[in-house]
Design brief:
heterodimer; A: mainly beta; five-stranded antiparallel sheet; B: mainly beta; seven-stranded mixed sheet; four-stranded antiparallel sheet; globular
Chain lengths: 109, 117
């Protein structure tokens, strides 16, 4: 069974602070996706990384895939209240996704 | 692109009745559709995977006779919760993936909130 450990589980910060969310596994995934979910809605895909060592930037969000394709991180610079939500990492294998438990981020104004 | 819709967005039903939830891929053909269940402030739990025209594959612990899945076309999958009980109350989310997407991504519907009284 492939497992994804996501940390921290909860994070409450002030507007303007930086933060990093980690996603770790003992398994290798063919791809890794990051999603953001708001209450009462479905997850929205933020990024997909497929190559070991890959770094992708999406405005203030930086995503990194580990060299061994077992771990990933999401870094947010100068967080804003609009970044509040549940961040989920998901490892892809044979079109099936294994989700981490999620990081519930609250950015206070 | 890659939009998935779900209907209804919320439903309240009485214990013992059945409820059908529809999942449609609007602008792509989802060769594979997935059904998830999510409890408050928790992650998504995969219930089953369905390929168009084939029987669904259920995850361990998910009752296939209780959660009936039909994937009759490349754009429509349905989940029927039969003889619903209060413990079935949850947020059900579908996603489309497989051949209709690249690199294994899944695109999620907005979810259906089911409350069984």
């Amino acid at each position: 069974t492939q497992l994804l450990e996501q940390s921290p589980q909860f994070l409450s910060i002030q507007e303007g602070e930086n933060l990093t969310v980690y996603c770790n596994s003992s398994s290798v995934f063919s791809s890794l996706q990051w999603y953001r979910q708001e209450p009462g809605e479905g997850p929205v895909l933020l990024v997909t990384v497929v190559t070991g060592g890959e770094v992708k930037k999406l405005k203030r969000l930086t995503f990194q895939f580990g060299d061994a394709r077992k771990d990933s991180s999401l870094h947010i610079t100068a967080a804003q209240p609009g970044d509040t939500g549940l961040y989920l990492c998901a490892g892809g294998s044979n079109y099936k996704l294994t989700f981490g438990k999620g990081t519930l981020l609250t950015v206070n104004p | 692109g890659a939009v998935v819709s779900q209907h209804p967005s919320w439903v309240i039903c009485k214990s013992g009745t059945s409820v059908k939830i529809e999942c449609r891929s609007l602008d792509f053909q989802a060769t594979t559709m997935f059904w998830y269940r999510q409890f408050p402030k928790q992650s998504l739990m995969l219930m089953a995977t369905s390929n168009e025209g084939s029987k669904a594959t259920y995850e361990q612990g998910v009752e296939k006779d209780k959660f009936l899945i039909n994937h009759a076309s490349l754009t429509l999958s349905t989940l029927t919760v039969t003889s619903a009980h209060p413990e079935d109350s949850s947020f059900y989310i579908c996603s489309g993936g497989g051949g209709g997407t690249t690199r294994g991504e899944q695109y999620f519907g907005p979810g259906t909130r089911l409350t069984v009284t």
